[in-house]
From TrEMBL:
The chain crosses the membrane at residues 6-26. GO terms for molecular function: DNA binding. InterPro entries: PemK-like, Plasmid_toxin/cell-grow_inhib. Belongs to the PemK/MazF family. It comes from Phytomonospora endophytica. This is PemK-like, MazF-like toxin of type II toxin-antitoxin system. Keywords: Membrane, Toxin-antitoxin system, Transmembrane, Transmembrane helix.
Length: 142
């Protein structure tokens, strides 16, 4: 009988420790896309924005992934609906969560980020899934 209270105490301590570890892993900085501050774009979010062409000849309203954001704008990666599965600098991302009209997945361009002014963001579409966001963060050292 005297062994039972010790067993329950050890089991309770193990459960408490597991809960603390799980909570710390889920809430550590950078493990999830950051929440929006003040309604503007935040890292890990997908937004529709007027994104300038790389050659400076114009722009196009398109979905993009926010990498970094400040009061003036954000660094983004372009998202395309064109099949880029043959390219190593693109990754397929699920589209159904942020574009219900899409009939197939999109591709995220992992090459150099593009700077977009804050006023060019038109509509928040959603968040990138946590697994892909983690890979993007490592690649772009966020």
């Amino acid at each position: 009988m005297s062994g039972a209270p010790v067993w329950w105490l050890l089991a309770g301590a193990a459960v408490a420790l597991a809960l603390v570890v799980a909570w710390r892993l889920l809430t550590r900085p950078g493990s999830r896309p950051a929440p929006r501050a003040g309604g503007g774009p935040a890292p890990g979010e997908i937004w529709w924005a007027d994104v300038p062409f790389e050659d400076g000849t114009g722009s196009k309203v398109r979905p993009c992934l926010v990498l970094r954001a400040d009061g003036r704008g954000a660094a983004v990666l372009k998202i395309t609906s064109q099949d880029q599965s043959h390219r190593r600098d693109h990754v397929e991302i699920a589209t159904r969560h942020w574009d219900p009209k899409a009939r197939h997945n999109s591709h995220l361009d992992l090459t150099d980020p593009i700077r977009v002014s804050r006023g060019s963001f038109t509509k928040r579409a959603g968040r990138l899934d946590a697994g892909t966001w983690s890979k993007v963060r490592r690649l772009h050292r966020i």
